[in-house]
Amino acid sequence: MCGLAGEIRFDGARPDPDAVRRMSDRLAPRGPDGAGAWSRGPAALAHRRLKIIDLSDLGAQPMTDAEDEVTGVFNGCIYNYQELRRELRGLGHRFVSTSDTEVVLRAYRQWGTACVDHLYGMFAFALVEHRTGRLILGRDRLGVKPLYLAETPGRLRFASSLPALLAAGDVDTSLDPVALHQYLSWHATVAAPRTILTGVRKLPPATVRVVEPDGRHQDHRYWQPSYTRRPEHAGMGPSEWRDAVLEALRTAVRRRMVADVPVGVLLSGGLDSSLIVALLADEGQRDLATFSVGFESEGGVEGDEFAYSDLIAKEFDTDHHRLMVPSARVSAALDAAIAAMSEPMISHDTVAFHLLSEQVAKEVKVVQSGQGADEVFAGYHWYPELAAAPRADAADQYARTYFDRGHDDLAAMLAPDLLPPDDVSGRFVREHMAVPGAETSLDAALRLDTHVMLVDDPVKRVDNMTMDWGLEARVPFLDHELVELAAACPPELKLADGGKGVLKEAGRKLLPHGVVDRPKGYFPVPAITHMAGPVLERVREALGAPEAKRRGLFRESCLAELLAAPDEHRTRRGANTLWQVALLEIWLQTHGV
How far apart are CA 9 and CA 211, in angstroms? Predict the structure, then answer.
């Protein structure tokens, strides 16, 4: 797990070493254990290392293969790297390290761009072919690891974070109206390849891009589950599906224990993280470090779920760590969390993850997290409503159920020059859901949520907040084989028992029933949920700043109405509208846009 950056020129010039160094410097928190750089001809690469696998200097990056044919940088972890290493050795490849990075280089030498089909894990990589000058960029199937791009005439820069590209300079920082529309419609989700900035794009998940020396490029999407019922699962009943899901999750959790350092678990006390702990205990893991965070109650809202996490910690005898955060600490930590965001994210638990990661990183370098289970196994309360819609109406029902507001509502909020002429967010959903392969309305909604919304909201949130403290977070519920199995699982089994039915049945084999059958919990951060005190002061300061006035994103009448009643204006989903508006402006100011 690390940070990567680079530049390639198409105009005959050499890369700008100062710009590449600035990108590397901005990525330092992602890789506090080492730094490296490489340049040859029109290409330059930089890397910041977090030592997880092969702690020796032989695992340092950028790494060049033994035949001096390919140089690459890599961010993430290949969970099956040991098996691939043995396979590649049998095919005649020589290794000088025990790192998974070298396995990626060798896999590319053996299979070309099809190497990604052999990689089980989370990854983003950039490889330069010495002979041809081609640049190969790749991203994992579920987009767990980020890869941002900034292209100008004659040049392409890339990095593990958007702020790193800003540090390099010469980026078009005007706002992308389509992305802004998605941000305000889709609960801050901006679908790849867009970002909120016109001059920055991101490589989509499950994509390999081959960039030619003249700048032309071709993308190949290498993975997408069908979300249909498959012949090999015909005749499986609920108990068979339960056992299949449990076994696939067991494999996913076991894979994510591969490391040359200890691996802990972020334990909320909910079903998902509790299952991870139970499966690790079942595998014989002892003295497992687990971590929970809680906040002071405010406005009648409870700020912790320690009762449940304590129960699991006691049940499986973990080395448990509680972190109770006072409200004053939340407001003080807000700016640091926003500085860690590659893109503006409005979920309240972003600050919680940042605070938790700060403490966890003092104890371990790697944790497993339960993120993704709700999107993969239909755990949210809105899925039954989506499932009830006819397949032809799935997109419209999704927008009504999940979007924060409609296109017409945006006309009263945004400056006229930033409002697209039509409902671009709704059109994106309709086009995505119209793609063949999802049998039912629920299949179509889960496909969209898993491969778009999940990538550019919850997963990005975890990556950004953990990596800002040099902490690697692994997400077993996004193991691609588990996702494939869940995609084929009959909708009624996922919807059963109030959502995640098949997963709850698996949980009953390992967990106390009080944890499995508890009401669904969220990551409450009352100090932000209720707009008051220092957080409200920060919001007023940002929206009244000269930069905000000059930018003029929102109508003055809209801002005046929101600030007059900070806690009253809510989206369809109950989110605070003022927070959505202010968070975007604070993010832009924080990153010097």
Answer: 11
End-to-end Cα spacing for the chain = 28
542 and 518, same domain (yes or no): no
Residue 136, SS3 per DSSP: strand
Please give the radius of gyration of the chain, using alpha carbons only, rounded to the nearest integer.
23
- Count Cα neighbours of 432 within 13 Å in the Cβ-side half-sphere: 26
Tell me the per-residue pLDDT of 228-261, one tens digit each, with 9 for 90 and over. Answer: 999 999 999 999 999 999 999 999 999 999 999 9
Cβ atoms within 10 Å of 307's Cβ, excluding its own: 11
Could you tell me which residues are beta bridge partners of residue 158?
Answer: 6, 149
Residues 6+ apart with CB under 8 A from 170: 19, 152
Structure-block tokens of residue 44: 């330059």
| Judgement on whether residues 342 and 296 belong to the same structural domain of the protein | yes
Q: Which amino acid is at 391?
A: R
| Residue count (the chain) | 593
Distance of CA 408 to the CA centre of its chain: 30
Classify strands 263-266 and 366-368 as parallel, antiparallel or unpaired. Answer: parallel
CATH number of the structural domain spanning residue 130: 3.60.20.10
Per the CB < 8 A criterion, the answer to whether 516 and 497 are in contact is no
Are residue 8 and residue 68 in the same domain, yes or no? yes
β-bridge mates for residue 469, sequence order? none
Residue 358 counted as domain residue: yes
Question: Residues 264-297, buried b or exposed e (16+ Cβ, 10 A)?
Answer: bbbbbbbbbbbbbbbbbbeeebeebbbbbbbbbe
- Residues 126, 38 share a domain: yes
Judged against a pLDDT cut of 60, whether residue 299 lies above it is answered with no
272 and 214 both lie in a single domain: no
For the chain, give the percent of residues with pLDDT over 90: 87
Q: 189 lies in a domain?
A: yes
Q: Is 159 exposed, middle or buried (0-12, 13-18, 19+ CB in 10 A)?
A: buried
Enter the tokens of residue 377. 């196994």
Domain end: 510, 526, 542, which one? 526
Q: Give the chain's mean pLDDT.
A: 94
Is 208 in the same domain as 244?
no
Looking at the 3D structure of the chain, how many domains does it have? 3
Q: Would you tell me how many other CB atoms lie within 10 Å of the CB of residue 349?
A: 20
447 shares a domain with 337? yes
Which token pair is 236? 């499986």
For residue 64, pLDDT over 80 is answered with yes
Same domain (yes/no): 520, 535: no
User: Is 292 in contact with 307 (CB distance < 8 Å)?
Assistant: no
Q: Is the pLDDT of residue 297 over 70?
A: no
In 3D space, the residue among 538, 531, 522 whose CA is nearest the CA of residue 569 turns out to be 531
| Structural domain includes residue 414 | no
Spatial contact of 386 and 445, defined as CB atoms under 8 Å apart: yes
Domain extent for 555: 531-590
Residue 446 belongs to domain with CATH number: 3.40.50.620
Query: Is 485 inside a domain boundary?
Result: yes
